[in-house]
């Protein structure tokens, strides 16, 4: 009989077996009341990579145009060679034959809880609408290429972002403001003409504008100038603000990857440590020029998976089930995820010795569970490299 | 293009909190627009927060082209002097706001079916905002526009914002009369504040005068409790300075004492909107399915 209950990170990373999806059946099984589980279903079995799994064809079936962009889930083929036992188990599941109906409603329910917990919604009636809106609106948040117009290089951008991360901390701005500021910076660098001499000014203005959108308490313009050692006047700063706002045509919306990360982590019942690790990895993505080409939900998904891989926390059937429900959020192809994970893994391995260390330092404190010091981060690229060499 | 060149001013419409609103004509298309200008001193804090949020939110919402949200057509920045810049938001022009509309309605006031129609549009605009994580926070008749054909358009997003984790701390300056109890008590608040305001406006459509006209936060709460009764101790938020015992005990009075013309279904919806506990207050989405609004 095929034991499909696995969600082991290594298996998830084994991406070259064509289009393998997070197996739906996994959590379907584990959602069963405990006593229904066959006694043989021990922990070891959970970690097994079952053969049958690899042959099965997982296809994405959008429920509707709406849910197509949201859900990543496998079609349930009840006649599949998984044996009558599994079929029977599935039927037990509240007597529902068609899991296509069940998956979205479970995810919906979990999403409602998660959004509520994170304070993203007040009224659960709107949870799914708002999540759909987030999924849709993030599509506008990517860039076709990582190239920056002359004379800016990836390195100058990284140095500026690193400095903004420090300034952002000084003002106790929310994380949303930081992600928005860097997003605005990425757009400005491509859309408005600025000289190298006013690059820092541009960065600060992006943070200031992000603050105007997100924060209750704003720094004085003079404080901002002071932080730049008065290299620019207030007048110059405010003129830059106007240029930024007009250049961006006041489009200041951005769906922060952090929201996706926190939602997924909450649905997946991730440990605090795993959430901090993922947040650290996600923040490192701000410094990586190439990451602008990916969707926020993908960056978040990759950060979370990499955190899971690095930490190797012992899993339980419950945690696997929760992880699998959260994995039904559509994050795009496995190849893309692997690519992002590789970028992040390399960034994390280098973080300690780099010039741009603000994030590394920020996540080295006890408040953040010292995640940036985690010993396994050094070997993270290896972990990924090995698996990717298999084909 | 500079706003002076593109638009020819026709008349002043309203004196707003940050500047004046003008009716103007697009010199090219002949179309009427409403210009809302803000003067920005180039030596202070830059563009006011309210303008940044208003424009950013409307920009985000415009792609959905919702019939009950006012359209922002353009934003112009015109330097006036070295010390000052004028930023102008260009809106589609709408004939009047709900305040004027109610004032102009001939006695004995709006017919029941018009009220229902206005409410339907108001609530559907609100459901749209709320499902995009936007809380308006300043709903009142002056900020609701009504076209000559009776189409409702929500306007003035100067206080609106995207709902997110750190909302509760922001102080609000919403007009007292439409403020919800949780805002008056300075407790946490969210989308239900807009529903409370909508309830007040609903009653005002019948009355043609505001429902609760308090003079201070405490007075406003007192006026509210005169109608709804003093909420129970369990309902009272825990973390607030104004305590329940500061108010005299009252039992609820029939809302029909204040809004005699309202029908039974309307009364039911109104009560659900003017529920003290924001968790129990009806949501815009559910209000849309309320029998009062489903009727034709
Ligand atoms: N698009 C418009 N068409 C017609 N009148 C408008 C329009 N926008 C605003 N007004 C009028 O101007 C007044 C003030 O505008 P508003 O946007 O509410 O600014 P404020 O933030 O200053 O209150 C409104 O109460 C309304 O009467
Ligand atoms: Mg107004």
TrEMBL record, chain A:
Q: Which residues form the Cyclin C-terminal domain?
A: 255-377
**Pfam families per record:** Cyclin_C (PF02984), Cyclin_N (PF00134)
User: Which parts of the sequence belong to the Cyclin-like domain?
Assistant: 162-246, 259-346
Protein name in the entry: Cyclin N-terminal domain-containing protein 2
Domain of life, per lineage: Eukaryota
- What family does this chain come from, according to its entry? Belongs to the cyclin family.
Keywords carried by this UniProt record = Cyclin
TrEMBL record, chain B:
Q: Where in the cell is it found?
A: Cytoplasm
Extract the PROSITE patterns matched here.
Answer: PROTEIN_KINASE_ATP (PS00107), PROTEIN_KINASE_DOM (PS50011), PROTEIN_KINASE_ST (PS00108)
Q: Which InterPro entries match?
A: CDK, Kinase-like_dom_sf, Prot_kinase_dom, Protein_kinase_ATP_BS, Ser/Thr_kinase_AS
Q: What is its EC number?
A: 2.7.11.22
Q: Which UniProt keywords apply?
A: ATP-binding, Cell cycle, Cell division, Cytoplasm, Kinase, Nucleotide-binding, Phosphoprotein, Serine/threonine-protein kinase, Transferase
Entry annotated with the keyword Nucleotide-binding: yes
- Signal peptide: which range, if any? none
SUPFAM superfamilies named among the record's database cross-references: Protein kinase-like (PK-like) (SSF56112)
Domain named Protein kinase: which ranges?
A: 7-293
Biological process terms from the Gene Ontology for this record are: cell division; G1/S transition of mitotic cell cycle; regulation of G2/M transition of mitotic cell cycle; regulation of gene expression; signal transduction
Member of which family? Belongs to the protein kinase superfamily. CMGC Ser/Thr protein kinase family. CDC2/CDKX subfamily.
Q: What is this protein called?
A: Cyclin-dependent kinase 4
Source species, please?
A: Denticeps clupeoides (denticle herring)
